[in-house]
Amino acid sequence: MRSIFFRTLLLTTLIAAAAYAQFAQGGQNAFPGQMFVGEKLVYEGKFNKALLRGISIGEMTFYAAMGTDPGHLLIKSEAVSQGTLLKMFKVSFLVQYETSVALDTFRVETSKKHDVQKDRVRDGDAVFDYKGKRVIYIETDPNNPTGPPRRIASTIESPMHDIASGIYELRLMPLKVGQTFVMQVSDSGMVYKIPVSVRAREQQKTVLGNVWCLRIEPDIFGKGKLIERKGKMAIWLTDDARHVPVRTTVDTEYGRIDIKLKSVTKPN
């Protein structure tokens, strides 16, 4: 259950951060990805079904900055459990990601993950080797430093993305109802092909006001997919030049999760 909470929060937030950055004027930058620098977005996820309605799941904070490596964008995200989920059900999690993206090619080069699920802690590092055409992921347990690391290697193509850089790429696409496409994304050393469909144009009440949105449906649930459980996801992006994702619903075996944009801090 915790992995579903985090992955849906992460995916939604990164989609939002990527799309919302279109308010910046990229023409002043050497590379379009520089327009994301300085953005901070906060999301909150809640149950929205029967007796669990309104129960808070957790919050995610997202921030993008220039990397210490010249010519790289550093994407930072954090998801943390909170509210009733933590107090009543003792479900706790803290997951932090750092993704380094080359601005000239806009492909992911490294990704770091710190994953805490109650007493279980895992650190993961992914390196994308485009000459060797593979991603190498190494996971360790900080509580057991003498234990053998978990290693996964998968074949990749160029460009390849993790969840963060793939969603940044999505914002560059012109979107319209009826459109379908496939994105290649790597997570924890595995590679997934994610079909995405633009289903409808609908109005939503949001922190940005009552706005017309495009309903996007990524196919991430099922055997061999990003989340190997039954489920369905829908994402609403504003139908304007910014394509701001303002809401996501996720139907799972535990009920419906509603994830909404809570606050936005624009770059200086």
Give a short summary of the structure:
The protein has 268 residues and is mostly beta strands. The protein contains 3 helices and 14 strands. A 14-stranded antiparallel β-sheet has the order 8-7-6-5-4-3-2-1-14-13-12-11-10-9.
Order of helices and strands: HEEEHEEEEEHEEEEEE
End-to-end separation in angstroms reads 38 Å
Please indicate the percent range of residues in DSSP E strands (runs of 2 or more).
over 45%
Largest sheet: 14 strands, antiparallel
Uncertain ranges: 13-28
Mass-distribution shape: globular
* Individual helix count: 3
> Could you tell me the mean pLDDT?
82
Can you describe what's shown?
There is one protein chain. The chain is mainly beta and 268 residues long. It is 13% helix and 50% strand. The chain contains three helices and 14 strands. The chain has helices at 2-20, 83-89, 163-171, and strands at 40-47, 56-66, 72-81, 93-102, 108-117, 120-129, 134-140, 150-155, 180-187, 190-206, 209-218, 232-238, 245-252, 255-265. It has a 14-stranded antiparallel sheet. Strand 13 and strand 14 form a beta hairpin. The longest helix has 19 residues, at 2-20. 32% of the residues are buried.
